[in-house]
Design goal:
12 helices; 3 domains; 298 residues; 3-stranded antiparallel sheet; alpha+beta; 13 strands
Length: 298
Amino acid sequence: MGSRLLPGGYWDATGHRHRGYELSRLSGREEELLAGAGGSGSPALVTEVLSRCVRRIGEVSPVSEDVARRLLVADRQFLLLELRRATFGDEVRADLVCPRPDCGERTSVAIPLDDVPMTVETDPVPWHTMTLSTAAADGLDAEREVVFRLPNGADQEELAPSIARDATNEAEALSQLLVRCIGRIGTLERLQRDDVATLSATARDEIEAEMERVAPAVEQTMEIRCSECGRTFFAPFDVQRFFFGALCTDRGTLYREVHYLAYHYHWAEAEILDMPREKRHTYIDVLAEAIEALNHGA
C-alpha cells in the first residue's frame, strides 16, 4: 500500500535519494509495543514503529532502525499519518472548544488527512549551503559560508533527554541541534559546543530560518470551522499525539481479544498478534454474531 512520495526523501551513502515507500498495516504486535510504552510518543518509539511497518523506501529494503532513524523529521511524521490512514481511514476526528469569547462551544470536527498541509523539499540535496549576512558573520571567515543538513530522527532521539529535563531551554536545544547538523562554517569543520556558542544571535537565527525554509514540513496547525458559530480558528495538529493516542490499546483489552479468538478458533497467540487490527476485529465481530445466533436459536 502507499503510492505517494515522501516529502523529503532518504539519502543513502552513495548520495542517491529515495522517496517512494511501501507500508504494512499495524499488527497486534505493534499495538502491544505501543501499549507497553504507556501512550508515550518518544522519538525512539517512532523509530521502532517505522522500522517494523515500513517495508521499503525507494530501493532500500528492509528498512532498519538506522534507516528509520535517519529519515527527516517531516518524513517520519508523514509516514505516521500514512500508518494512521491505513488503520483508521482517511479522517481524523477531534473534539475542540471554539476559542471565540462569544462562542466557547465544543465542536466535533473531521479532518481529512489529505487536507493536512504539507510542504515538499524544493531543493533536495543531502547538504545545504547558505551565506550568512555580514552582520551575522562578525568574527567568522570572510566567506561566511555555512553547510548544514536537515534534522532527522537521530537528532530527535539524541535531544529528547535534555528537552525532557528542561523543555523551556530552547536556546540550549538549538545549540545541540546546530552542533549535530552543521557540517562546516567557513573553514571550520566538526563543530563543538563551544564553536556554536560563539555564534552571534543573528547568525543562529539566520541558520535556523534557512533550515526551516528548505525543509519539508507537515503542518502542525489546522484551520478549523466551528460548527456552532460558523467562524474559523486555528488549532494545533500534533501528528504524534493523534497517531499514538488513537492507536494506544491497553494491554488488557488486547490480550482479552487474543484470548477470545484463541479460545474459540484455537489459533496460536502469534497468529493472532500478526493480524492487522481491522482483520482481528472483523473476526471478533463475526464470532460474536455467530454466538448470538446460536444463543437466539437455543
